[in-house]
């Protein structure tokens, strides 16, 4: 059985309304049709159960968006009025939500159609979906009004949205930024290990980076493990520790960090900005 897991109701078509197998052909395309009527998936399925109908489709989407299956994908449905294309296609009948006019389709049906197109494309390894190549429609094969002006106008959209669904999800590897051991960071989350994906609420919202594993999911160890591991997504603010060297002045240090000596003095409770000593640890925020 080749069928989409999106199927909500299965109504097998009468065996005389389709051909068993694919006559040696490979599935190369998805063909979109409209029902030229407002139907449910069940009502459409009923039509293909009728002996002598001489027509069928693999799938049908009701006006309410419900997805039905009538012919297994391993068999050839008779939908496209072209046997060769039937052998190479998975076909979908889509209910309209108006009779005539633009033959509009409800948003629910359209969304189901997009999902189904994406799913059929993925399972049959059709690759990137391309309008007119592997996503086709009835009037490409025969003179017919099917699938109607509305669905025709939506082909670019259907293909683009289906490709979005099938696009590989980007794996978010947090990049190690310029943070250094000794940086003090404010955090809103913490992990129990460098690889954990379970973000926890930290007991302390501030800590010092004491170890860095470059490229790790959570590269920074805080307070030698007393707090845990964090990544850049946990860090909501940071400060640095500067150790005063010979010849330093508070204004010189302030310049280096793009801040003011008044701010450093205030952040470090220094009452006299002229009095700092070698080896003194200053917090630069
Ligand atoms: Zn058609």
Could you give the topology of this structure?
Layout: E1 9-10, E2 18-19, E3 29-34, H1 41-49, E4 59-61, E5 67-69, E6 76-77, H2 83-88, E7 89-94, H3 107-123, E8 135-137, H4 148-153, H5 155-166, E9 184-187, E10 206-212, E11 220-222, E12 228-230, E13 235-243, H6 250-256, H7 261-267, E14 281-284
Parallel strand pairs: 1-5, 3-7, 3-8, 4-7
Antiparallel strand pairs: 2-6, 4-5, 9-10, 9-13, 10-11, 11-12, 13-14
Helix pairs in contact: 3-5, 6-7
This protein binds zinc ion.
Zinc ion is lined by residues 33, 138, 146.
What is the H/E string?
EEEHEEEHEHEHHEEEEEHHE
Number of helices: 7
Proportion of residues in helical segments: 10-25%
Arithmetic mean of pLDDT: 93
Biggest sheet statistics: 6 strands, mixed
Strand line-up across the major sheet = 1-5-4-7-3-8
């Amino acid at each position: 059985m080749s069928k989409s897991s999106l199927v909500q109701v299965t109504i097998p078509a009468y065996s005389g309304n389709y051909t068993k197998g694919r006559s040696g052909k490979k599935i190369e395309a998805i063909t979109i049709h409209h029902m030229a009527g407002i139907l449910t998936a069940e009502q459409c399925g009923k039509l293909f159960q009728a002996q002598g109908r001489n027509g069928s489709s693999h799938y049908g989407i009701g006006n309410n968006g419900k997805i039905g299956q009538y012919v297994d994908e391993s068999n050839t449905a008779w939908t496209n009025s072209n046997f060769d294309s039937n052998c190479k296609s998975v076909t979908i009948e889509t209910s309209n939500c108006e009779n005539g006019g633009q033959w509009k389709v409800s948003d629910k049906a359209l969304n189901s159609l997009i999902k189904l197109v994406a799913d059929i494309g993925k399972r049959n390894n059709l690759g990137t979906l391309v309008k007119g190549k592997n996503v086709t429609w009835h009037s490409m094969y025969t003179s017919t009004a099917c699938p109607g002006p509305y669905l025709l106008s939506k082909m670019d959209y259907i293909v683009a949205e289906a490709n979005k669904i099938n696009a590989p999800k980007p794996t978010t590897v947090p990049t190690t930024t310029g943070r250094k051991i000794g940086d003090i960071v404010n955090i809103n989350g913490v992990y129990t290990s460098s690889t954990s994906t379970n973000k926890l609420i930290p007991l302390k919202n501030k800590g010092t980076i004491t170890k860095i594993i470059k490229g790790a999911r959570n590269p920074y160890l805080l307070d030698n493990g007393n707090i845990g591991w964090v990544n850049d997504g946990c860090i909501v603010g940071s400060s640095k520790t500067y150790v005063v060297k010979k010849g330093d002045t508070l204004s010189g240090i302030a310049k280096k960090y793009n801040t003011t000596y008044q701010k450093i003095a205030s952040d470090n409770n220094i009452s006299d900005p002229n009095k700092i000593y070698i080896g003194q640890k200053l917090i630069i925020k």
